[in-house]
Amino acid sequence: MEPPARLALTDLAAAFAQIGLSSVGGAAGPLRHVIVKQRKWLDEATFAEIFGMCQALPGATGANMAVILGRRSGLIGSIVAVVALVTPSMLLAIAIAAFATHAAAHSTRFAAGETAVAAGAAGLFVANGTRLAVTLWRAVAEGDRTYRAIRSAVIVAGVVLVAGFRLWIPAAVVVLVVASILADRRTGKPS
Amino acid sequence: MNAQTLLSLVLRFGTLSFFAVGGGISILIPQIHHEVVQQYGWLDDRSFAELLAVSQAAPGPNFLLVPLIGWRVAGWPGACLTLAAFLLGPFVITSIAAHVLHNHDSPVLARFRRAFRPVTSGLWIASGLVIAFAIDRRPVELIASLGVFGLSLAFDLNPVWLLLGAGALGAIIG
C-alpha cells in the first residue's frame, strides 16, 4: 500500500463535521461521499475494506473511521476528527431536544407527533433487520440448505432471546457471535 | 446534579460502548432503555421516546442518543462526559487495531464480519420490537410503527421522510 499522505487538521475537522451533520439514518452514505468522492482520501476498494473493519470493531462506525483517517496526522488527528464528527451534530441535537421538550410541554399534538416518530423508528429498526435477513438469505447458494438454516437460526435466536426473553444484550451479543462464528467455521462457506 | 449520577452515567455508557459492534448503537437501544428507565429511573418512557425521536430524526450519527440522555439527566457536564465515556474505549481499540492490522481486510476480521451479519439482523429486529412494546400505547403509535416498517421494506425510502411522516400523522390524529 502507498504511504498515506498527512492530512491537514483543518481539512480533517471540516470533512468530519460535514459527515456528522449529513449523517441521517446511518453514516455510510456521507462517509463514502466525503472521503472517496469529494476528498479522494481513499479509493473505493480501500474504503470498503476500512469501513468493514470499522463495523467489526466496537464503537460507532463513523467514529472508528474518524480515528483511522485521523491517524494519518497522528493521535491529535484522530482526536480532531472524532471531536469534529460529534460536536456540531451534538449541539444541534441538544438544541432540537430542548425545543422539542418545550413544545411537547405546551402542545399535546406536538407530544403525540414526537411519540409517533419514536414509534416509527421502532418500525424502521425491524424493517432494517428484515431487509438484512432477506439479503443474507439470498446471498447463500440455493443448494446450501445447512448454511442457510444456521444463519436463519442465528437471526431467530437473536429476536427470541432479546425481544422474547429479554436477555441482557451484551450477553446475547457474545453468545450469538460465538455461535455464529463456530457455525460459520464448520460449514466454511463464503458468501 | 450530583457526582454519583455522573459517575454512574460514565460507567454505564463506557461499558455499553464495547458491545456496540457490527450494527452500531441500534442493537443496544433496548439495553439503554432498560437501564435508563427501569434500572436507574433517570427517565420515564415518554422522555426516552422524545430523545430517541430526536436522535433518529435530527442530522447526526444515531449514537447521539447517548449524549442526549446524558444532557437530560445531568445537563451539559452529563452530555460531554457520557459522550466521552462512550467514545473512549472504541477509540483506544480502533487505534490499536489500525496500528496492528496493516491489512484492513484480514481473514480474521472478514470471518468475524461475516459471522456478525445474521446477529446484527436478529438484534435489529429485536431492538425495534422491544422499543415498540415500550412505546406503542395507542393505535396511532401502532400505525406509525407498522406504517414505517411496511413503507421502508416495500420502497426503501429515505428514513427521514418516513419518520417525519410518522410525526405528522401522530400530530394530526394525536
Walk me through what this model shows.
The complex is a heterodimer of chains A (191) and B (174). Chain A has 191 residues and is an all-alpha fold. Chain A has two domains: 9-97, no CATH class; 108-187, no CATH class. Chain A has helices at residues 9-22, 28-38, 44-56, 61-70, 74-106, 108-139, 145-164, 169-187. Chain B has helices at residues 3-17, 29-39, 45-57, 65-100, 107-135, 139-155, 159-173. At the A-B interface, helix 1, helix 3, helix 4, helix 5 and helix 6 of A face helix 1, helix 2, helix 3, helix 4 and helix 5 of B.
Oligomeric state, counting identical vs distinct chains: heterodimer
Query: Ranges of chain A with pLDDT <50 over ≥5 residues?
Result: none
**How widely separated are the two ends of chain A?**
26 Å
Helices and strands of chain A, in N-to-C order? HHHHHHHH
- So what's the overall shape of chain A? flat
Question: Span between N and C termini of chain B?
Answer: 34 Å
Largest sheet of chain B: none
Mean pLDDT of chain A: 88
Number of structural units classed as domains of chain A: 2
Counting helices, strands and paired strands, the structural category of chain A is: mainly alpha
Q: Mean pLDDT of chain B, as a whole number? A: 90
For the CA atoms, what is the radius of gyration of chain A?
21 Å
- Which protein chains are joined by the largest interface, and how many residues does each one contribute? A-B, 96 and 110 residues
General form of chain B:
globular
Q: How helical, in percent, are the residues of chain B? A: over 70%
Q: Percent of residues of chain B in beta strands?
A: under 5%
